[in-house]
Amino acid sequence: MKSYKQSIDKHRDPEKSQKIRTFVFLIIMQLCFIFLIYRLFMIQCIKGSQYRDEASVQHYGKTSLASMRGDIYDRNLQPLAIGLNSYSLYADPSNLENWEKIAETLSPIIDIPSSEILGKFKTSKYFVWLKRQLPYEEARRIASLELAGIGFREEGSRLYPKDELAAHVIGFVNMDNVGLEGVEKVYEPYIQGRNQELKSRIDRKGRILRPFDPGYEKPIYGMDTVLTIDEVVQNIAEKELKKACETWQAESGCVIIMDPTTGEIIALANYPTYNLNKAFSFDDEQRRNRAIRDLYEPGSVFKVVTASAALNEELFSVTETIDCEKGVYNFDGRVIHDSHPYDILTFSEVVQKSSNIGITKIASRLGDKRLYEYMKAFGLDDKTGLDLMERKGFVRPLEQWTKHSMQAIPFGHEFAITPLHMLCIINAITNDGIIMKPFIVKAITKKESNIDNLNVFSDSKPSLESAVEFSPDIARIPISQKVSRTMKKILIGVVEDGTGKKAKVKGYQVGGKTGTAQKASKTGGYIPGKYVGSFAGFVSGKDRIISIIVVVNEPRGKHTGGTVACPAFSVIAEQTMQYLTAGQRSYAAR
Amino acid sequence: MTKYRYGRFRYSTRNRGSKKSINYAGGFDKILLITVGILVMTGIVMVYSSSNAVARESLGTSYHFFKMQIIWCILGLAAMIFTAFFDYQNYAKFARFMLIFAGFLLVMVYVPFLGITRGGGTRWIKIWRLSFQPVEIAKLVIVIYMAELLDRKADYVRNYKLVIMPSLIMLFIFSVLLYGQPDFGSILIIGFLVYTMLLVGGVRIHHMVLLSGIALLLIALAIWQEPYRLVRWTTFLDPWKDKEGAGYHIIQSLYAFGSGGVLGRGLGAGIQKLHYLPTPHTDFIFAVIGEELGFVGAFSVVMGFMIITWRGIHISLSAPERFGALLAFGITILIGFQAMLNIAVATGSLPTKGLTLPFMSFGGSSMLVSMASTGILLNISRPRNLGYAGTDSEMQGRSKAW
């Protein structure tokens, strides 16, 4: 007892002090808890709504519901361009946990070096694309990794199942699914559709908790477009054009096939061409739709216009003779040559043999004023009316004509038009003097949008109910029915007994006009040795008639239209007519 | 001597010969028992609510953590029943052995194959299929040891060589073991435990002031060594300064509480647990409670811990002798301080530290030890005939025997 007392402070009682200290701790701890309750009250009751609002900002995410671009079909509803949904991979670098590791994980899957991925991460932005429009399998593999800060955005994308077929007609889209060329561009408002943004609750990894709140709006799907193009005919045209251009080592070329009675373009081919699925690896030389964008001097093919004008004005009869001066003639100081010297030719023969001297004499009786009027009547100084970013023809106004213009224009020089203009002239001849407005989109139809289909390939066919329909329309009537029929006979003569013999097709009646034009240089004058060989004509079967133009630009070796363009014309005409008339594919029925 | 025998004699005289002394269950502190029961039950529900989405995603079953928590609760209940009926005075005999065993377990963490690294710390050891944190056991053992030490040297508490030095050496050894894991949160807790128990055990105030100075110096040293800790320590003052970085966890926790408002979003309706909050079923379970059950729910939980603290201190004050009083006090501090820290971190009142909420967070070892501690408290609260421990001279004699 004593030792205990001695060892402790006499003024203090250890047990009491222990109890007091214990009690003090109770008070301290309870005060701390009360402080925490005060904190809770401040956070939850006073500032609660503020935090709630701030939290809801991160709880809601916008998901873009991608619309799908409308499909493009040929006239027999064969798909030429298909809209699909694809997934694009993006990163939110601020949310990424381990840059190096994620970059290395993704690299082999998306086939981008990890250093490049790392480079993309190094940005102050909260959103950076890693790869657009991934193949489905890649997207699925990455999604299964469940990486924070890595996400997908659904985007529309485009598939062109026939690669190069009708490339210049269809055109292509960019990464943001906006049409840049051809039908894709011109009919963008119809084809595009409209994306919708969907606000939904998300977890931190950006996944939607309740996918479809009742109030959301469906994305509006793009409309389907049905073209007048026939896939089979288009294929024939492209194949033969390529063959001709390769045979003659030509720089370029084009083929247009039309139904002159309606103005429908059945095929439109250009050489060189490009793969729509890899459009960005080609340049403008390949992507330009030369058939309607490039102006050229048509040369002798144009004699059709001069001759029809003279007949329409009743200045000549087809049997009237014209002295062709044995191949050389001096008009007011300008010497004109014929490729073959002729003596006396009838009016028909002037066209059939393609005598420059003969047609110049015909034109001089017609006079420049009337020739100019007819050129305008054929629409050569204007657009043909095809809604595909075509170019206007270039014809100088009458007052700018020089004194030698009348020795050049009558056989197709000193002005420039597109191959489509030239084909429209032939259409007037074959269609009783009426030029139908050329068109390439037959109908635009609504697609039934189905929400269950959002993520899968669309297999819906265009519905029969059309949103917009395009019907044949008369563009111009430059010459009378009588004259057109006379001219038609003359053009048939060109093939049977004139410059266009190689255009003959067994079993079908063929007419047309060859053209061999020198190429004008940009600085003025003509480039020696550079020609445009062309043949514009028609082929008619029992109750079908189609018009075709074949243009071969800068062929090597031989250059006359009769040699470079006629054989291609012949094959195209034959195969097309066989296809069109043999089967059940009567367009009249459609 | 008689005037400060408040606790000791009240129970012993009142219950002697009465009917209550036969009734075992009736002798426990019922308020403590019921409060702990309610917290544990609520904890099970909240563990399920906060973990089901994450578990379904990562493990394929939403019930994983729920099931595990129930298993641990059953084990914890068994431990509690055992400790509640096991005379606490026996712990004094084994205190030093237990201390060595706890140290041994902490060393085992460093053994390959046994130690498990999770979330940047090697804090678990795995035996069969159950993993547990040795530090949880160590905390309780340190409380027992400190109580035993202060009781054994009750006469010499004012002599720093005999009391403060051994506890500081013990604290240093455990700190070194924990530093390697690293687990600064636990160092902080055992440091605080040792400090408070020394203080209550009767150590001189100016010694404690000196110790506080040393502790502050050590904290300053730790910060100076690794400056990122300072950033971590200061962001809680203004978490919006680094919204996506150091402040992220605090902000998400505040969002959870704020979204809960007064009445909460409703059980299971919380959103913050969907990856916004880190570890919603362990460290931030209180934030999930705040979001789903609102201020009312969060307030009730804090009240629960206030009741536990009150009952714990009450048991300490009315304990029949010094070892029991110190043991009850230490356990109360252990539970109360951890709960306080966890809640303070969740409400952005203290810097972020990975600490569990006793009785509620998912975590086997924490649950087991908390329940066992509660059992010890209950055991101390039991009325008993303390014939030989009834007088100072006998206490003194017993402590001398040690």
Percentage of residues in DSSP E strands of chain B: under 5%
- The low-confidence runs of chain B, each spanning 5 or more residues with pLDDT under 50, are 1-25, 385-402
Give average pLDDT of chain B, whole number.
83
* CATH top level assignment of the largest domain in chain A: Alpha Beta
What is the CA-based Rg of chain A, rounded?
38 Å
Q: Nearest-angstrom radius of gyration of chain B?
A: 22 Å
Total helical segments of chain A: 20
Gap from first CA to last CA of chain A: 123 Å
> How many separate structural domains of chain A?
2
Residue-averaged pLDDT of chain A: 84
Largest interface by Cβ-Cβ < 8 Å:
A-B, 52 and 59 residues
Q: Give helix % range of chain A.
A: 25-40%
Describe the structure.
The complex is a heterodimer of chains A (590) and B (402). With 590 residues, chain A is α+β, with helices and mostly antiparallel strands. Chain A is built from 20 helices and 20 strands. In chain A, a hairpin with a 2-residue loop joins strand 11 and strand 12. Chain A is elongated and about 150 Å long. By secondary structure, chain B is mainly alpha-helical. Chain B has one domain. Chain B has 15 helices and three strands. Chain B has a three-stranded antiparallel sheet. In chain B, a hairpin with a 2-residue loop joins strand 1 and strand 2. The longest helix of chain B is centred in the C-terminal third of the chain and has 33 residues. Chain B is globular. The N terminus and C terminus of chain B are likely disordered. The chains are: A alpha+beta (590), B mainly alpha (402).
